[in-house]
Design brief:
The complex is a heterotrimer of chains A (about 400), B (about 270) and C (about 475). Chain A is of the alpha/beta class. Chain A is built from 8 helices and 18 strands. Chain A has helices at about 5, 60, 70-80, 310-315, 320-340, 345-355, 360-375, 380-390, and strands spanning about 20-25, 40-45, 85, 100-105, 115-120, 125-130, 140-145, 150-160, 165-175, 180-190, 190-200, 205-215, 220-230, 235-245, 250-260, 265-275, 280-290, 295-305. In chain A, α5 (about 320-340) crosses α7 (about 360-375) and α6 packs antiparallel against α7 (about 360-375). Chain A is globular, with a radius of gyration of 21 Å. The termini of chain A are far apart. Chain B has a single domain, classed as P-loop containing nucleotide triphosphate hydrolases (Rossmann fold). In chain B, α5 packs parallel to α6 (about 190-205). The longest helix of chain B has 18 residues, at about 190-205. Chain C is an alpha/beta fold and about 475 residues long. Chain C has 2 domains: about 15-310, no CATH class; about 425-475, no CATH class. Chain C has helices spanning about 5-15, 40-50, 55-70, 110-115, 120-125, 145-150, 155-160, 165-170, 185-190, 425-430, 435-455, 460-470; strands at about 35, 95, 130-135, 135-145, 155, 195-200, 210-215, 220-225, 225-230, 235-245, 250-255, 255-260, 265-275, 280-290, 295-300, 305-310, 315, 320-330, 335-345, 350-360, 365-375, 380-390, 395-405, 410-420. In chain C, α2 (about 40-50) runs antiparallel to α3 (about 55-70) and α11 (about 435-455) packs antiparallel against α12 (about 460-470). Mean pLDDT of chain C is about 90; it is low at about 1-20. The chains are: A alpha/beta (about 400), B alpha/beta (about 270), C alpha/beta (about 475). Chains in contact: A-C, B-C. At the A-C interface, β17 and β18 of A face β21, β23 and β24 of C. β18 of chain A pairs antiparallel with β24 (about 410-420) of chain C.
């Protein structure tokens, strides 16, 4: 990593005059009243080096991103060298098959800005992991995914930044016949997270699912755009988003599903649940369904707000205060990330909880991780090793 | 239609329904192969067969479901070739299909629906008052709360309630042929009793023919069956009298399935 | 399909009872006064002079014209209005007759128009008062004696200005919808003409609705009526608005404005069945401000027009204020209807419930667009939004674009949307009971629209069912 000499952005080298505003970031594909200030966002980032930008293989160039032209160009220019991986099918070649890519923006040994192009050949399986950590600077990653016939891709994204740090994440996906892509995203922290997922379900019977869980407090802002187009017949798209907004957090979710003429037999759905727990929260949602085909099903559901009096009454009867409930819901997201992500990322979640919330929270996360990862090691020892990783060994397992 | 199609009008004059050499397919392939079936006027018939044999398909094709393509063969009803008629025309001609899963129609109250389908039929012409009486009386005999009449058709109805609404329509429309597609499936004992009574009443009052599609024999206990047709793999493999029900009850369909497999192999 | 079941034959028998000519007839403009097409300060001054207005109104018109000229149309959303050339729209057309309070005094051809639309008959049977506008001016206004005795005022705005209501009008006129709101609100401010002024005094409940009917007869003209309704605390009013126009090959424009003030504990129901002809650009603005404990209820049916931008909005400003919006939009061939609503909850315990249905057919485009804004002041506010869209073929479009901005921790907002079509099973089920395919579809669509039509007065519900039947004609084939 030769961050300084390459002039790529980093926390150390970002005086204000060295910054530039990226405009029309995460713009919604179908827009609405401008006075709502919901159509797009803006992101101030360090200036990118002048240059041609990352060069991508032909198959990756066609993959659409939804982060906006400014952001796309910026990421490209800041990328030193794109990571290109082609996951092969199950032919008996004997050779090692590269199946996936791991990038760790913000980690001491990671690229600040990275570009990944990942193709799963027919019938192959592949994965991509983005693990954004650290407490300073702007990090970014662009992920272009191509799943050929019958291929499947799994993507895990953890955005566990802290303090003033911001992260720009762009994911684009194209799916051929019978291909499937599943994306899981956890956004735990960072002053600003701009996340966009574009997905084109071109092939018949292709399926796309994305699950987003986020947590925002203080003055953190989470900005998310989904732009899913269903083109093939009998395609399946599911977008799920849920999160907790506390203190002065703000969140914008633009989720659009486009059921394009010809996508007969397709089904697209969006579901959102938001727990609003702060006095100064801003929560914006633009859940769009575009439809030019009759033989389809499109649906959207959202529940936004605090717990209902009935729910609260029940929880009170079990001895929980309103505050308890909010921390319970927040902790649940962290625990969920810790338990469902792979060991390395799980460790980062526990580390994040320790840095941001302190010992109790990280212990809970470590417990949660141990419940699952305990299948590979017995529970107490796994927790101990987790705890030792997070510097909590002295607090031990009681 | 090809040149070798049997003219269904040349069939037995006693026949109310005659299906001749009927082959039917959907996009994924052929489902029914050269099916022959005759239902005499006023007779009680049972179409039996294992799950997936094509029984419901045959019921739907007789009704005129556009989802299926008739590749060859013909369906004659009451002396007319109905093969090319749409479902509504067949309904007015006197065919009734009780759906396995009756459809929900939001916003259309049951009562308005019943009136609308009755008014279509000159033979059922009656005064508004008479109609109200008739519907109320039918509700009573089916153990149906009249408050259902103001509810939206089938919306939020339980499985049993939906079947009662089917019986209500059956008795109201007095069709010449009633096809009951797995009307017994998913019903509790009480609802089953109501449905059986409905069927009996249809037999007694309307003198209509009956084609009961089922894969179990429970609903047949109180019914005097004239003819039994056994379907396996999209073909009718056996016809017989009412005694066939008991035999199948005891022995199952395996013998028929084996025979069908053998004949395919041959 | 068999020879006896051809759609064309069925069509003839099934829609015989609906008279297509009901809305689609034209009266001669001979002898009418028609201002030159296009827009200028002179035109605006002339309209104002014609109405002998106070100076502040002329100033508002001229200021609006300036705003209109400098305001762009939004470039990033909404249907195209490229086919609307303001240089070819006459902003003021009048038959020149005096306003009558008896149908006998209304000129014969205009009277005939309203007779055909059934307005005088409705007035006799079920309305408390009627206003009828023909092109730019009101031609008829009448209210039942007993309603007038309760202190209810129902007149044209022009008359009200001259009959002692100037202060109240000045205080409210274009205050809810300022000319700066959007380009066509500004246009409205510049050239508005006709419409209604309604004042319901404190505590007065009207047992029968008031109705205004707007008819745009002239080709290539605009209609810019202004409706200002003040329902004082504890009062209750149902106001019905109907509109139609014959079909022309040139663009017509409707840019009306509705401002509703609902006082403390008052209730206003505002029902509209809009059936503009399919050459109409309907760029209408409707807004209600609701005080403590007050309720606004919108019932809105959009069937006509070539292009519509229509989003009745509700500002819930007082504790416990509520809004109920029930809407249906039917977009057929050649129509691009962008409709929905806006709700702004700015006080504690406010409630909003939105339920809409949209139907797209024959290449029509229907867009549901809404905004729900919950401010930090709206503690314990409750909002539910439900929109259902029905696609009747694969040439049409149905988009759902709802936006929500929630800034209150104790508010609860629920939203659901579904898009789908009539299933083949449903059609088969109905056909198997002897109902023809076209009629089966009409039945399902009417059922889909039922939650809206049951909110309408009977004769309007019947009109809506007839409109659906008309639109569904030839839906198969």
């Amino acid at each position: 990593m030769t961050r300084a000499t390459a002039g790529a952005p980093g926390a150390e080298a970002t005086p204000l005059e060295g910054t530039v505003a990226l405009e029309a970031v995460d713009a919604a594909s179908a827009q609405t009243w401008n006075w709502l200030a919901i159509n797009e966002t803006e992101l101030r980032v360090p200036k990118a080096p002048e240059g041609a930008g990352a060069s991508l293989p032909l198959w990756a160039k066609d993959v659409r991103l939804a982060c906006g032209a400014d952001a796309e160009k910026w990421i490209s220019r800041c990328t030193e060298a794109p990571i290109v991986i082609e996951a092969k099918g199950a032919e008996p070649t004997g050779a090692a098959k590269p199946r996936g890519a791991v990038v760790r923006p913000g980690a001491p040994d990671g690229e600040t800005v990275s570009t990944v192009a990942l193709k799963a050949e027919a019938g192959a399986e592949g994965f991509a992991v983005v693990d954004a950590v650290g407490a300073s600077g702007t990090t970014a990653s662009a992920l272009r995914l191509v799943a050929l016939e019958g291929a499947s891709l799994e993507v895990d994204v953890l955005i566990a930044r802290q303090g003033e740090a911001q992260h720009l994440q762009a994911i684009g996906a194209t799916l051929a016949e019978d291909a499937s892509i599943a994306i899981r995203i956890w956004v735990l922290g960072g002053a600003k997270t701009a996340l966009s997922v574009a997905s084109d379900l071109v092939g018949d019977r292709s399926s796309f699912s994305s699950e987003l869980r986020y947590l925002a407090g203080a003055d953190e802002s989470v900005d998310v755009t989904y732009d899913v187009r269903q083109l093939g017949r009998q395609t399946e798209a599911r977008i799920g988003a849920s999160g907790v907004l506390a203190e002065g957090a703000s969140k914008t979710l633009r989720a659009s599903i486009d059921l394009v003429r010809g996508c007969k037999g397709s089904h697209g759905s969006e579901a959102e649940t938001v727990l609003v727990a702060g006095e100064h929260v801003t929560n914006k949602t633009l859940p769009v369904i575009l439809c030019s085909e009759d033989d389809v099903q499109g649906d959207h559901g959202a529940t936004i707000g605090s717990l209902s009096p009935e729910q609260m009454g029940f929880l009170r009867s079990r001895g929980l205060s309103e505050r308890d409930v909010v921390s319970l819901a927040s902790q649940a997201i962290v625990d969920d990330a810790a338990s469902r992500l792979d060991a390395d990322l799980s460790t980062d979640v526990v580390g994040w909880a320790r840095d941001v919330w302190g010992g109790e929270a990280s212990k809970s996360a470590a417990d949660a991780a141990a419940m699952v990862h305990g299948t590979i090691c017995d529970v107490p020892s796994c927790v101990t090793s987790m705890a030792s990783l997070t510097g909590l060994s002295d607090e031990g397992e009681g | 239609m090809g040149p070798f199609v049997t003219n269904p009008l040349h069939a037995d004059p006693n026949a109310l329904l005659s299906v001749s050499d009927l082959s039917v397919s959907v996009e994924d392939g052929q489902i029914l192969h050269d099916v022959n079936l005759t239902v005499d006027r006023g007779s009680a018939n049972v179409l039996m067969g294992p799950n997936g044999a094509g029984k419901s398909t045959l019921g739907h094709v007789i009704m005129g479901d556009g989802a299926y393509t008739v590749d060859s063969g013909a369906i004659a009803f009451d002396g007319e070739d109905v093969t090319a008629l749409s479902a509504d025309k067949r309904s007015l001609a006197g065919i009734f299909l009780s759906f396995q899963a009756p459809v929900e129609i939001p916003g259309v109250p049951l009562y308005s629906f019943l009136r609308s389908i009755t008014q279509k039929r000159p033979e059922l012409k009656m005064s508004a008052r008479k109609f109200r009486q008739r519907v109320r009386e039918l509700c009573e005999s089916l153990d149906m709360d009249p408050s259902y009449l103001t509810r939206e058709l089938n919306v939020g109805f339980s499985g049993g309630e939906k079947k009662k609404v089917e019986m209500l329509q059956l008795l109201l429309l007095e069709p010449k042929l009633a096809i009951l597609d797995e009307t017994d499936s998913g019903l509790d004992v009480d609802a089953l009793g109501v449905v059986s009574r409905g069927i009996q009443r249809f037999r007694e009052e309307c003198d209509g023919a009956l084609l009961v599609i089922t894969h179990n024999t429970r609903i047949l206990e109180r019914l005097a069956v004239d003819r039994v047709h056994v379907m396996v793999d999209g073909t009718i493999v056996a016809h017989g009298g009412g005694d066939l029900v008991e035999r199948i009850d005891a022995e199952g369909f395996e013998a028929y399935e084996r025979r069908a497999a053998e004949s395919r192999g041959a | 399909m068999a020879a006896d079941g051809t759609p064309s034959q069925r069509k003839r028998t099934e829609v015989a009872d609906v008279n297509r000519g009901l809305y689609d007839f034209v009266k001669s403009e001979e002898g009418y006064e028609r201002f030159d097409d296009g827009l200028s300060a002179e035109v605006v001054r002339e309209i104002s002079a014609r109405k002998d207005e106070p100076d502040w109104m002329l100033e508002l018109r001229l200021r609006s014209l300036e705003i209109y000229e400098r305001t762009p149309m939004p470039a990033n959303w909404g249907p195209s209005i490229a086919g609307l050339d303001m240089a070819h729209i006459s902003t003021y057309v009048t038959a020149g007759s005096e306003q009558a309070s008896s149908w006998d005094d209304v000129p014969e051809d205009i009277k005939d128009t309203f007779e055909r639309l059934g307005i005088p008959e409705a007035e006799r049977t079920s309305l408390a008062g009627v206003g009828a506008q023909y092109d730019s001016e009101l031609v008829y206004h009448n209210m039942r004696e007993e309603v007038a005795q309760q202190g209810v005022v129902y007149s044209g705005i022009e008359e009200a200005l001259h009959e002692g209501w100037e202060d109240l009008i000045r205080e409210r006129f274009m205050k809810l919808v300022p000319p700066t709101d959007h380009k066509f609100a500004a246009l409205h401010g510049a050239v508005w003409s006709g419409g209604s002024f309604v004042y319901v005094p404190e505590g007065v409940s009207l047992d029968f609705p008031l109705q205004s009917y707007f008819r745009l007869n002239a080709a290539g003209a605009g209609q810019f009526e202004h409706t200002l309704i003040i329902v004082e605390p504890g009062a209750d009013l149902h106001f019905i608005e109907g509109c139609s126009a014959p079909k022309y090959n040139v663009a017509n424009l409707h840019a009306g404005c509705v401002e509703l003030f609902v006082g403390k504990g008052a209730r206003l129901r505002y029902s509209t069945i809009e059936n503009w002809s399919k050459n109409m650009y309907n760029l209408n603005t409707k807004r209600a401000r609701v005080e403590e404990g007050g309720a606004i209820e919108w019932v809105s049916g959009s069937f006509g027009s070539h292009v519509s931008y229509l989003y009745p909005s509700s500002l819930l400003m007082g504790r416990g204020a509520s809004c109920e919006f029930t809407g249906i939009t039917f977009a057929g061939a050649g129509q691009d209807l962008d409709t929905g609503c806006k709700v702004h909850l700015a006080a504690p315990d406010t409630r909003a419930s939105v339920s809409t249905k949209s139907i797209s057919k024959g290449g029509g485009v229907s867009t549901f667009r809404s905004s729900v804004v919950v401010t930090p002041a709206a503690e314990n506010a409750k909002v539910s939004v439900s929109c259902q869209s029905l696609m009747l073929d694969d040439e049409s479009r149905s988009d759902t674009i709802p936006a929500m901005d929630v800034r209150c921790a104790t508010a609860q907002v629920g939203h659901e949307a579904t898009i789908g079509r009539i299933s083949d099973d449903t059609i088969l089920y109905l056909m198997s009971r002897g109902i023809g395919e076209e009629e089966a579809r009409t039945m399902v669509v009417n059922g889909f629209a039922e939650p809206i039509s049951k909110e309408l007065p009977l004769e309007y519900a019947v009109e809506m069912n007839n409109l659906i039947k008309l639109e569904m004609e030839g839906a198969i084939g």
